[in-house]
Every structure is written in C-alpha cells, then in structure tokens.
Amino acid sequence: MDVLIDAWIDIGNEDWTLDIVGTGNNIKYIRQINKTNKNIKINFFRAVSKKKEKKFLFDKHDFLVLPTKNESFGLVILESMARGLPVLTTNTTPWLNIQKKTQAG
Questions:
Q1: Same domain, 91 and 56
Q2: Distance between alpha carbon 17 and the CA centroid of its chain, in Å?
Q3: Domain span at residue 43?
C-alpha cells in the first residue's frame, strides 16, 4: 500500500480522493500524510462484508486499485469487474489472462 500512497502524493491532484478500504495498519501514516500534505486527500474505511456496504463503495468510485505483491486471486477484482468497475492491479495476480481474452473478444 505504501507504493500506492507514494504515487498518490506524487500525483498531488487536490480534486481527487483516494479511499483505502481494508484492515491495514497504516491509519496513523495516512493521518500524518493528510496533515502534512494539504493537497492530498486520503480516506480510510474498515473492511466491509455486507452486500449493502460493498455496493455503496463500488458505486461510489470510478475504479478499483489493488496494489499487491503476493495476492493469489483477489476476489475483490472479480467483484469489481462484475459491477463494471475498472480495475488497476499488479502483475502478481492471475488476472492478466482475463485482459488478454477480453481484448481478443
């Protein structure tokens, strides 16, 4: 997640907001970034499991980012794609084949 946060700081677009959802332990780090970088907006949400909460989060966003070094599958990618939400992720997930098959038609 640090790579994503660092990239967000580099982008520095004050019109955009990064919402992080999960059980990460970076809440203090995120609060510090928000204090020291006034042009950066980062929110942290706890992990959700209820359908209504997931629907709200998926519908609220323009795309999903899953930065991972070792995710084996990433069910959230499937959930996002099922809702038509574009996904940005690393090449450590097995989802590259879906992109190739989708582009091939």
A1: yes
A2: 11
A3: 1-47
Contacts of 10 (CB under 8 A, 6+ apart): none
Sequence letter at residue 24: G
The C-alpha atoms of residue 95 and residue 74 are separated, in whole angstroms, by 9
Do 12 and 39 touch, CB atoms closer than 8 A?
Answer: yes
pLDDT tens series, the chain, 105 aa: 678 888 888 988 889 999 988 876 678 888 888 888 888 888 888 888 899 998 999 999 999 998 877 776 778 888 888 888 988 888 777 776 666 655 555
Count of structural domains, the chain? 2
Structure pTM?
A: 0.75
Same domain, 90 and 53: yes
Residues 56 and 101 in one domain: yes
Q: 28 and 56 in contact (C-beta within 8 Å)?
A: no
Phi, psi of 2 (to 5 degrees): -60, -35
